[in-house]
Amino acid sequence: MENTLSYVFVTPYTIAKSRTGGVVSRLLSRLDLELVGAQMIAADDYFAKTYADILRSQDDPNNKGAATLLGDYVEQNMGPSGGRPHRSLMLLFRGKDACKKLSDICGALYPENRGVESLTGETIRDTYADLIVDSEDPNKVIYFEPAVLTPRNQKNAHMVLKLLSSWLPGQPNIIENMRYPDPKKIQRTLVIIKPDNWKFASSRPGTIIDMFSRTGLRIVGVKVHRMSIAEALDFYGPVREALKNRLGPVFGAKAKDVLETELQLHLSEDTEKVLTESFGTEYALDQFEQIIEFMSGQRPSCCPLEEMIEPGSVKCMIMVYEGENATGKIREVLGPTDPLKAPGGTVRREFGSNVMVNTAHASDSPESAIREMGVVRFHENACANLIRSYINLH
What we know:
By secondary structure, the protein is of the alpha+beta class. About 45% of the residues lie in helices and about 15% in strands.
């Protein structure tokens, strides 16, 4: 069976209630599909109505009324209200039988919501969705929140993917839909969930998002990214000199100690200086190369110059958070660079291994966030091109 592409929309209500991390955890840990794209979108009236009409045209004989229920929900809740658009998170998954697998993990609309005793917690909708019907008329829905939206078959998926391929181009990758009482107090900060979290199916990325949700900040942008060597060199450029200044003298002194012990002789301060400028600097630069390799999948010294701008072989997820003191709040939850020195309950303490494999990055200032967003071209998102390529192929 060939690899297919399908989607999950995390609804505005689920995002507003900071349940995004829990949903992502379920999707990543229980599927053998690859997450190939992510984008925060703000559906306009056209998209919401067109998507709703597609859903209404897909009535399922086994779930009478489900198509209308979903279509009405999308038109009323996913589109703008009071002139204000709402955030939805689009996740793109690729793999064999993608639609069925996503549909199974997201869950059905009706059976599990008719009574509390029938809930199992196995699916996303078991945990996060609500369907309340009239006790006297089971066909009358009083309240409905599906938590996530995903197609039940590939034909239905193609219809929505085709809509996305024409609508997504030109849509911003950072959603600006909030009016703050004092905009001057609002910051944006960038977070990277690093490649070590994506090596195998795991709930870690979702759990990390869930931990950041305790800040009360809003996620306004998301993208799945494969950092090129050129981007990694630019992104971590400021670290290069810092490593030389910090590690050079330390390992120059260590080299001096080793030589004195082995050779049984005393080395002068001038020799130590030479060792710092040679061995110490070389060690620091090797550490820098390891950082680049960790983030891009390859060492710069092993890569032909013309290939340095190509997407890397490892992926990460990049997010932008917005709110008051966003930089400080995120870094407090993240913890210090060395996981062993991080307080309990922080992201790095929970999931980091060492100063390099420390699970996530967060900007150290609003100015750094702006620079880093530019380096990874955060305002661009590959989802539209990915969907268009898939549609053209099929």
